[in-house]
Amino acid sequence: MLDRRLLKNFDLGLLFVALVISLIGVMTIYSATRPVLDAEQQTFYLKQLTWIGLSLLALFFVASLDYRRPLQLAYIFFGIGVALLIIVLVAGRIGMGAQRWISIGYFSFQPSEFFKIFFILAISRYLSEMEQESELDLRKLTKITAIFLLFPVAFIIMQPDLGTALMLIFIFISMVMIFGIRKKIIALVVIIGIISVPFIGNIMFQSLKGYQKYRIVAFIDPSVDPRGIGYHIIQSKVTIGSGGFSGKGFQKGTQGPLRFLPERHTDFIFAIFAEEWGFMGSVFLFLLYLFIIIRGFHTARVASDKAGCYLAVGITSMFTFYFVINIGMTLGMAPVVGVPLPLMSYGGTALISNFISLGFIESIRMRRSFLSY
Question: What is the model's pTM?
Answer without folding.
Answer: 0.87
